[in-house]
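Ticket #4471: structure output looks truncated?

Reporter: J.K.
Steps to reproduce: submitted the chain below (254 residues) through the standard prediction queue, then opened the result file.
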Amino acid sequence: MAPESIRSQARPLIRRVEVVMPAHDEERHLKQALDALRAAVEAVVQRKPATVVGITVVLDHCTDRSAEIVARFASLDHRITMMHQRFHNAGASRAAGISAALRGRQSELAGTWLASTDADSCVPESWLWRQLEFADAGWDVVLGSVEPDPGDVDPELLRRWRVKHPFEEDHPHVYGANLGVRASAYLLAGGFPELRSAEDKVLVDRLRRRGCAVVATDSTRVLTSGRTSARAPHGFGAYLRALGVETAAALRSG
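Returned output as attached by the reporter:
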C-alpha cells in the first residue's frame, strides 16, 4: 500500500498552528497576502477557539517596503512575528521561520501543524481549517493546489496552465505556497533543505520515504502571482515563463 493511502486515527488532534511565509521584496503583494492569511486564521479561531495560531514572516534580503508593511500588521496582531535574514534562499527562509516558531515547543510537536505559503499568494478563508480537518483525520501532510492570478497572465497561458494542472483531488503537484505538515513529521524528515528552489518537493519526497500519510487536495486552492520574472532559478515564475514560451511556439505553429 502506498504511503499516501496510509493514515492513522491515533494522531493527536492539532492544538497549535504555525504559519511561515518567506518574503523577498514583496511590497506589491504583501498586504493582500497578509489580509488573506489573517482571514484564514480568524476562520480557524471561530471553528476551533482553543487553537493557538502564530504567523512568522521571514524577510529575506528585502530592500523595499516589505518590512514596513509587515511591521504595521504585527503592531495590530500579536500573532504576527517578523524575522530579518539575508539568505536570498527560499528553503533557508522557510526552515529558519519554522525553527523559530518551534523553539521551546519540543513537547508539542505531534499536536502542532506547520502551514507554508508565500508572500505573493492569497490563501482562501478555509485554508487553515480545511488543513486541520485533514490533520485531525490522521493525515501528516496536506498538498494544496495553486492557480496563477488571472490578472497577471495572458489568457492563453492561463488556459494552458489549467490544461496541465486540472483542479482535482489527488493531484501530483507540490507547492511551497500551499503546503501543510505535522511538526513531528517535518522534523523526522529533516525539514526544508536550504535550496533556492524545489525545497518543497525535496521535503515532500523525504516525508513520503519516511512513510508519512500524504494527501493532495484542491479544496485549499491558493491564488498566487502569475509573474514570469523568476525569484528562484527553477521556481514557479521560471516554470510559467517556460510555459509561456511553449504556448507562444504552439500558437505560431498552429
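Triage note (M.O.): checked the attachment and the full C-alpha cell line is present. The mean pLDDT is 90.
Status: closed, working as intended.
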